[in-house]
Write a structure and sequence with these properties.
Two copies of one chain form a homodimer. Chain A is an alpha/beta fold. Chain A folds into two domains: about 290 residues, Zn peptidases (Aminopeptidase); about 140 residues, Glucose Oxidase, domain 1, CATH 3.50.30. Chain A is about 40% helix and about 25% strand. In chain A, the strands form two sheets. The first copy, chain A, has a nine-stranded mixed sheet. The first copy, chain A, has an eight-stranded mixed sheet with strand order 4-3-10-6-7-8-9-5, sandwiched between helices. The first copy, chain A, is elongated, with a radius of gyration of 26 Å. Chain A starts with a helix and ends in a 12-residue tail after the last helix.
Chain lengths: ~500, ~500
């Protein structure tokens, strides 16, 4: 017993002696806390130890942020506010009165949670009306095809389009079989690889179909999994190519049509769509702030978009993203954590029609961009957060990674650098402003995306709380740090 | 080297000597092959070693069955035939001309694959017509509720029903709040526990709602997962309780309605249904055989049901079950494996309306039941097979488990005894006939069940092949064994 005690005592003494040296503290800290997955392509960081220490000194504040929203009286509150919101308004498509009412409601909510300078900033947005629509296979048998017109599509003629289908698995196959395409409805049955790679069939399918003489196009929904679920989304015409009506169908029907066509059977489809564009309308980007105590004009921006497609409730895309963003500012206000610089929540309008709101915002705030320390956005799901995804210089990434280590109590250990992150904020980061979003466990994101299944049921209250904690923590530290996030490699 | 060689030689000699003793062979065999998960509630088996040996002697034949359908020219064929079938006919609801055409087609197919005595056996079946139907929440806002009327439901009055909703989470809550229920549409938002436990809300929700004065009922779909997917299914009225219209809604909407009602907001729903029963029609159970070479009148029955709900394509429920059943007989025919007794494939009609086809079959074959060695059915999914589920006496279960060990090359190692298995055949096993189905990895079964997502996309060709191999193997061994599967504990 006495020998064992001596050994323990010796180790304790040695530990105490070594703990006073900075190097030991750092190594110890790293080994205990920060066994992060290094996903930043071998970024070599050599941060100033004083900066590392400064960042790590925020850990007690980060704990207070995390505890308040994962255990305290803010626990579950963002889910409750978001369900109040989505149950009240449902989907919030650009151009609808409903979207504008939901913006009014949200501004009241931001004021209720004591955000400052709450206001809307006007923005003209496009108005696309879906109207009545349906598609049916009428040969070789009658079968209704579950479908959704794609955003921006034109209508069919009043009697619809009845034509033979050409079913292809890829653009390459379409080009090889171009001679067969004239006068046909082109059905794309592309395999799902990833959202980023596969979505081109949605965004450009109509253009490619029209180039070879197709008179309408039906796209297999872009998703990793389907329960006979059509997924809408924006598509774009090419001004040099004839516009044709275009819609998505389900994975199930696309595969069936392919099987039937591979048997050499003729397929005839009837498509009817009333889709059309209307005159632009006025909407608003919604803004609220936590004003800094020292450098008020320096901005850390957290954001999401408040509009949604006209299906489901826009709970995941992007009600949850918008709400965790402004709610992270509300949480800091409630904790009376006022940083040096200003934290600004922005809820973009008309993201789904092509990042419309943010583009107006840039026009109106162009001279302010140089004051933006970082722009953040949540528009890739609010599932269990696992880390940070960052767009910026290497030296900025090193600082961001160090800040990210403060989130290990949330079990967030990943860090990834990409050329651009999220959706709206890509329009800002292209001017050199650093950008960030959370890396979430979002395997199921595409299952719900742009569908009727985008409801509160897809969300988890505890995950929303963790997202709020993470955005609040990152925003607070960046807004309060002695230095700004660098934009040039040379700064560090 | 010479010492190592001597050791190897010694082990080889010892092995050869021991291998000739039955006990060693059994132990060796067990340890290498049959590390099965014992799921039969500690059933103590003490089978005659000669019987064990007889069963194990079938292993080479079982390999030939498995190889032909998982590697040979039968690989993928059942998926192809089933997709030909479902793509051609789609759903096959009882009472439709389409079901009868699909039965004609299937009989031709059975003949094409050389099944013997192929014929249909007449059966009168009920005809329920869904008609036009919809449901909408009109207060506190307009929101279309995705719904499906439940099988057997009556219609609403021609103007529909517009009434306040009472949302409850359980029958208990309904009874506690019975005073609030009068004149209301009762919405059941029961949690999903398991299909077996939760389906009572679908089958009896309307009766329980009517008992307390409800004028219609909407049931949260019975499923473990939803993408805004309504799940239909049969429900039953009670002759002593007023009949009210009843439908299912999605998990998502049921949860939303509950949240809204918990906020104290009044919900008004408009429900319109044209559902009604029509005069019974003639349908057929489809039969085909592989006639035994010795005891032709002794029967091993493999089955599935050919009818489906009027949504999706009835690919999983139960096109796949029906097809793997008759295809297992086709495989044996093709392999020229003729057992002692007859193997009979039966494709039941009108299972979904309450096991109608099998009940007529029992009436017509009651005296033949004593000749049934075993009845099998696939109606719980055709996902990756993992073992056998059996209903019968302990001594029969011991034999069945031993036969099941022949399926370890398919990685099927589970064995479970239950009071009854599958659907249609429960009507036969209650007369003492042993019954069996496959235990499959069917976690996702309820995701597709009775929905528009029940399509070929939910199925995997390799899994179908394995199901065919397993049914063919079990049917062949039982039909060829020196003994019949016992019905009484005392036999062994």
């Amino acid at each position: 017993m006495s020998i064992l005690f001596s050994v323990i005592f010796f180790v304790f003494i040695l530990h105490s002696l070594l703990a006073s040296t900075e190097g030991f503290v750092m190594n110890y800290y790293n080994s205990i806390f920060y066994n992060q997955t290094d996903q930043h392509n071998s970024l070599q960081c050599n941060l100033d130890l004083r900066l590392i220490k400064e960042i790590r000194n925020y850990q007690p504040i980060i704990y207070s942020i995390i505890n308040r929203v994962t255990k305290g009286d803010f626990k579950g509150l963002v889910y409750e506010e978001l369900s109040n919101f989505t149950d009240k308004f449902g989907s919030r498509q650009s151009g609808t009165e409903n979207l504008e009412k939901s913006i009014n409601y949200t501004m009241d909510l931001l004021r209720h949670y004591n955000l400052e300078n709450v206001h809307g900033e006007p923005c003209m947005i496009p108005v696309w009306i879906r109207g009545k629509e349906y598609a049916e296979m009428i040969t070789p048998r009658n079968h209704s095809l579950n479908m959704l017109g794609l955003g921006g599509s034109i209508s069919t003629p009043p009697d619809g389009i009845t034509a033979e289908a050409l079913v292809v698995n890829s653009f390459d196959e379409l080009h090889e079989r171009a001679a067969e395409a004239v006068g046909k409805i082109i059905v794309f049955n592309q395999d799902y690889v990833s959202y980023g790679e596969t979505v081109v069939y949605r965004s450009k399918g109509a253009v490619e179909a029209a180039k070879v003489g197709g008179i309408a196009s039906l796209i297999r929904s872009v998703t990793a999994f389907s329960l006979y679920t059509p997924h809408t989304g924006q598509q774009g015409y090419d001004k040099n190519v004839k516009e044709i009506p275009t819609a998505c169908i389900t994975v199930e029907d696309a595969q069936m049509l392919r099987r039937i066509s591979e048997r050499g059977e003729k397929i005839i489809i009837h498509l009817y769509m009333e889709a059309h564009q209307q005159q632009m309308k006025m909407s608003r980007n919604t803004v609220g702030e936590l004003v800094g105590y020292q450098e008020q004009k320096k901005i850390v921006l957290v954001s999401g978009h408040i509009d949604s497609w006209d299906v489901g409730q826009g709970a995941m895309d992007d009600g949850a993203g918008a709400f965790v963003s402004w709610f992270s500012v509300a949480l800091l206000k409630n904790l009376k954590l006022q940083p040096k610089r200003t934290i600004r929540a922005v809820l973009w309008t008309a993201e789904e029609q092509g990042l419309i709101g943010v583009q107006q915002y840039i026009k109106d705030h162009f001279n302010e961009l140089e004051n933006f320390d970082i722009v953040m956005e949540s528009d890739e799901g609010t599932f269990t957060p696992e880390g940070i995804e960052f767009a910026g210089t290497d030296s900025a990434a090193c600082i961001m990674q160090e800040i990210g280590k403060l989130l290990t109590p949330l079990n967030m250990r990943k860090f990834k650098v990409r050329d651009s992150v999220s959706s709206d904020i890509t329009m800002i980061t292209k001017y050199g402003v650093p950008g960030a979003t959370l890396l979430n466990k979002n395997d199921r994101y595409t299952w719900y995306h742009h569908t009727n299944a985008d409801t509160m049921t897809s969300l988890d209250s505890n995950d929303l709380d963790k997202n709020v904690a993470a955005y609040a923590a990152i925003a607070y530290v960046i807004a309060d740090l002695s230095i700004e996030i660098p934009r040039e490699n040379s700064i560090f």
